[in-house]
């Protein structure tokens, strides 16, 4: 295995994190078309299922504000989300325990909103020695500027960016893989 190959995602070295893919959170997104955002998030969920990648789902204020995680995502992943109140999911003990329980050091994170719910746990996870790859087209911000600024800041501290299609292709890599 070459050094470059070690940097690539494999089904055995990563976990997928889905943060706040809920109707009211999506309503505030304007950095990407909302249907495209949902399609990309469902594609990420299907990729996790296809490659048997551990996933962690979390939601915020489901009953009082944000609504339930999109049913299209739940239908694919078939797991209960971790409910929290904090904007920074890394401040929630149950969430961090679930992430660590995956045993994976490479985290592929998608979240709504980029400028809070993606950037905060990304910076915290990086600080604790995780590698973070942000799925930028399954994440959305309140404005394109807010989304882009958050992504740039995370990249400055070592996070990387990926898209849903690139994520699928990187895991597949060889057409003989069934």
Total beta strands: 6
Low-confidence stretches: none
The computed structural class is alpha/beta
Summarize the amount of helix as a percent range: 40-55%
Folded structure, characterized:
The chain is α/β, with parallel strands linked by helices. It is 47% helix and 16% strand. The protein has helices spanning 3-7, 23-27, 34-50, 62-66, 71-77, 93-101, 114-127, 144-156, 164-172; strands at 14-19, 55-60, 82-84, 106-111, 131-135, 160-162. Strands 3-2-1-4-5-6 form a six-stranded parallel β-sheet, with helices on both faces. Helix 7 (114-127) links the parallel strand 4 and strand 5 (131-135). Helix 3 (34-50) packs parallel to helix 5 (71-77). It starts with a helix and ends in a 6-residue tail after the last helix. The mean pLDDT is 95.
How would you briefly describe this protein structure?
With 178 residues, the chain is α/β, with parallel strands linked by helices.
Give the arrangement of secondary structure elements:
Elements: H1 3-7, E1 14-19, H2 23-27, H3 34-50, E2 55-60, H4 62-66, H5 71-77, E3 82-84, H6 93-101, E4 106-111, H7 114-127, E5 131-135, H8 144-156, E6 160-162, H9 164-172
Parallel strand pairs: 1-2, 1-4, 2-3, 4-5, 5-6
Helix pairs in contact: 3-5, 3-9, 7-8
Tag the structure with descriptive keywords.
six-stranded parallel β-sheet, single chain, 6 strands, alpha/beta
